[in-house]
Design a protein that fits this description.
The protein is an all-beta fold. The protein is built from no helices and eleven strands. The strands form two sheets. Strands 2, 4, 5, 6, 9, 10 and 11 form a seven-stranded mixed sheet that branches. The termini are far apart.
C-alpha cells in the first residue's frame, strides 16, 4: 500500500525559510494531484497549496500566496514545499495529501478530494 511520508519540519524564526518534502513510498504511485494542508492547535485543517501532477499547475491559499511555492519531482515521487518569509501564524502540523485523479484548481483546496494522507510534520515559527 502506498504511503506518503513528510519530512523537513522543524523550528524556524519568523522571516526565515523552511523546506518540506512529501514522498510516496512505492513506484506504483499514481497521482493526479498532491496538496499541502496544515492544522494549528485547536483549529481546523486548512489548505496551503497544491500541484497537479500532469502539468505542474499550482494553487495556493491567500495566506501563503507569494511566500510559499510547491513543486514536484516526478521521478522521485516527491512533492516539495518551499516556505519563505515565514510568520508565527504559519505554525502547525503540515500534512501532504494525494488524489488519484487530476483536480481542477477550484477543487484543490477541498480535503475531500484527496484519498491518501501523510502523518504530518510539525512546523514551528518563533517570533
Amino acid at each position: 500500500q502506498v504511503r506518503l511520508v513528510e519530512s523537513g519540519g522543524g523550528l524556524v524564526q519568523a522571516g526565515g525559510s523552511l523546506s518540506l518534502a512529501c514522498t510516496a513510498s512505492e513506484g506504483t504511485f499514481r497521482s493526479g494531484a498532491m496538496g499541502w494542508f496544515r492544522q494549528a492547535s485547536g483549529q481546523e485543517r486548512e489548505f496551503v497549496g497544491a500541484i497537479r501532477w500532469r502539468d505542474g499547475t499550482t494553487e495556493y491559499s491567500d495566506s501563503v500566496k507569494g511566500r510559499f511555492r510547491t513543486t514536484r519531482e516526478i521521478t522521485k515521487r516527491t512533492m516539495n514545499l518551499q516556505m519563505n518569509t515565514v510568520k508565527p501564524e504559519d505554525t502547525g502540523m503540515y500534512y501532504c495529501a494525494a488524489s488519484e485523479k487530476p483536480l481542477w484548481t477550484t477543487q484543490m483546496a477541498s480535503p475531500e478530494q484527496y484519498n491518501l494522507w501523510g502523518q504530518g510534520t510539525q512546523v514551528t515559527v518563533s517570533s
